[in-house]
Amino acid sequence: MDTTELHKLFNAQTQEIEISLIRQFDEQVAPIEGMIRLTLGQPDFPTPQHVKDAGIEAINNNFSFYTGMAGDIRLREALANFIQVKYNVSYDPETEILSTVGATEALATTLLGILNPGDKVLIPSPFFSLYEPLVLLGRGVPIYIDTTENDFILSPEMIQSAMDKHGDKVKAIILNYPTNPTGVTWNREEVKAIADTLKKYPNIFAISDEIYSELVYEGSHISLGEYLFDQTIVINGLSKSHAMTGWRLGFTLAPKTITDQIKKVHQNLVTSASSITQFAGIEALKNGMDDAVPMRLEYQKRRDLIYEVMSDLGFKIAKPNGAFYIFAKIPEGYIQDSFKFCLDLAKKVKIGFVPGVAFGKAGEGYVRLSYASSMAEIKEAMKRLVAYMKENAPEI
């Protein structure tokens, strides 16, 4: 077969997307000896022991068969209770909760379940790099809302402006808070204001990615489902709250009419989430409701250290109140191309940051670093960053 013609055989949508620039850059700098990689959003804490024990018990008891496609009812009941206690939203575990293979599959299943070709999806930018390709795979059209001028806070006015421009073709908006890559989150008044704006458009789905809901430093997380239940599809999971990234357990929470439809996609993509992982998830949700607290306290210490050092170096940062990321604007006089800046930093002082352009055009000129690494590594990384900025300081 002529390889020059091979591209014609593939899904056109697949050819439009690229491998994540986050992963590309991480793999590029990983081989550098002595590299401190503050690139990936993966907790450096182990899964809590009681959760691991539950997984082991499931294996020993031969809990190795398919569950129902929506997940073990005990898991869904545990999640419903967790969400009610934590975020004051009630979901019927029988009909309004779907267990998925991580939050990633929850997002994919949702978008494939609701999009028709040409549907527009509003995405506040900078944004988590997964959103754009998933919209494209669903044959949707991403529409970006630049939030940089408002310290990355999405406002009702921004949503209204996008709706005025794109009107009836908008099918959904993807919301993410606390936000990857900025760590910015919303207070109760801001959540309610966004909900009130979206209520004016009852035919629009609000896909609310709340995977970092347990990592809010001051105040508490407010779920969009509390104020916009009928339109909202909440995405969540245990990767960040219980340091279970590799276990792959996520959820959708939405009204029955929505869940019924996206469940069909889920069934045909994966059948069901891992039974062993689900059993561990029951333990996490029932007896580990506050497992995130010690992690959150440690993340806050790391955030404060990085914020202070980088602010002193001239980086402009909207101080994050959630997740475990710093999104910092490169000071004037230094390399402004975020990819080139991060590559130069990696080569000269062996620190791995993610180029801001990996999170959309609005992220150009910024860098993202994850503080889901040990305090010792972070202190050393900041020491190296100070040296780099001094060595490469622009001449006055």
TrEMBL record:
Q: Which organism is it from?
A: Marinilactibacillus piezotolerans
Top enzyme class, one word, equals transferase
* Stretches assigned to the Aminotransferase class I/classII large domain: 34-385
Q: What EC numbers are recorded for this enzyme? A: 2.6.1.-
Identify the cofactor(s): pyridoxal 5'-phosphate
Coiled coil (residue ranges) = none
Q: Listed GO molecular functions?
A: pyridoxal phosphate binding; transaminase activity
Q: Which NCBIfam families match?
A: PRK07309.1
The UniProt family comment states: Belongs to the class-I pyridoxal-phosphate-dependent aminotransferase family.
Xref: Pfam families:
Aminotran_1_2
Q: Which GO terms describe its biological process?
A: amino acid metabolic process
- What are the protein's UniProt keywords? Aminotransferase, Pyridoxal phosphate, Transferase
On the tree of life, the source organism's domain of life is Bacteria
User: By what name is this protein known?
Assistant: Aminotransferase
